[in-house]
Amino acid sequence: MKNIWIISSLTILALAAAGLIYWWTRPEPVKTTEEAIQVLTETPNVIVSENPLENKVPDLNPVEKTNPFKDSYKNPFAP
User: Fold this and answer.
1) Calpha distance 41→38 (Å, rounded)
2) pLDDT per position as a tens digit, 59-71
3) Over 90: is that where the pLDDT of 28 sits?
4) CB 39 within 8 A of CB 30
5) Is the Cβ–Cβ distance between 30 and 36 less than 8 Å?
6) Whose C-alpha in 22, 66, 69, 75 is 20 to 30 A from the C-alpha of 38?
7) How far apart are CA 50 and CA 21, in angstroms?
């Protein structure tokens, strides 16, 4: 019975500590509509290159490597 009280009190203390930490570190809400418009109209700083795979893709054609009998067999009925 004593273990249940200790575990429950520690659980309550841990939840209270987590709640206080969340309460102190939460971001402040936007208070006026002008601030909301300013926050929503800010553009994020995102840098995107025109070709992200430039010089990173090998020049291999997988279709050419699919038929291992390409040069060894000639179809007599082909035009």
Assistant:
1) 5
2) 677 776 776 777 7
3) no
4) yes
5) yes
6) 22
7) 43
